[in-house]
Amino acid sequence: MPDIKRTVKLVTRQRPISEPSPMEGFPMRSWSIEIYLLDDKGNDVQASCFEKAVYNLHPSFEKNKQTFKKPPFKIEEKGWGEFDMTIVLTGAHKGGDHTLAHDLNFQSEKYEATHQVVFRNPKPDLVALLEQSGGDANGVRGKTDPSKKKVRRDKAVDMEKLADGLQKLNEDDLLHVVTMIHDNKSNDTYTKNDVENGEFHVDLYTLPDSLVKNLWDFTASKTEL
């Protein structure tokens, strides 16, 4: 399975509170942090692809390591000082640890910060969770936009299953698929090679019928369709 990238958003809120502060000139404040994912339209969605979030706070906190296991992994604390922390997000289904650096400051009542995380060779159960947030996986992404569908002469090919099958191929097989597409595409074929993010996009419905059949046969020989 190709690597999958997602954008994590941290939402921090803070406000002064009427409690005595141990440090003169620095009023006590309550603060909170919540963790979300951004979908492909920039909307907040639950970060259900993580099984827990561990906040590593300043050593002066009595509980300077706090773990939360339910989205949005909200932490609520109070104090008088700003500090840098790390937040370790653990991916579900053995999705690995992802460490984010976060600056807790009191410049605004609410502020947001985004971080990109990469899931390396995620397991199918994790991929299913990641697909809930939309976006593309690295490698070959088969577009199957219903509004762009056209009638194919080859009824033996299920385009949705082909798109799903392409996502299951390993890196070497994906490279072979990209070569097949480049060598056999038509003038109507839509492709996009995003070198910076290591992604190759293709609209399967713009491929010649013969190429679609070849892709189907090759993918079927490598994975279950």
Report the average pLDDT across residues. 86
Q: What's the β-strand tally?
A: 12
**Helix fraction bin:** 10-25%
Sheet of most strands: 5 strands, antiparallel
Q: Are there runs of 5+ residues with pLDDT below 50, and where?
A: 136-153
Protein name: Transcription initiation factor TFIID subunit 14
Subcellular location: Nucleus
InterPro entries: NET_dom, NET_sf, Sas5/TAF14, YEAST_sf, YEATS, YEATS_dom
Pfam family, one: BET
Keywords, separated by commas or semicolons:
single chain, Transcription initiation factor TFIID subunit 14, elongated, NET_dom, nucleus, 12 strands, alpha+beta, YEATS_dom, four-stranded antiparallel sheet, five-stranded antiparallel sheet
Write up what this structure looks like.
This protein starts with a strand and ends with a helix. The chain is elongated. It is built from four helices and twelve strands. Strands 1, 2, 3, 6 and 9 form a five-stranded antiparallel sheet that branches. Strands 5-4-7-8 form a four-stranded antiparallel sheet, with no helix packed on it. It has a three-stranded mixed sheet with strand order 10-12-11. Helix content is 20%, strand content 37%. By secondary structure, the chain is an alpha+beta fold. The model is unreliable at 136-153 (pLDDT under 50).
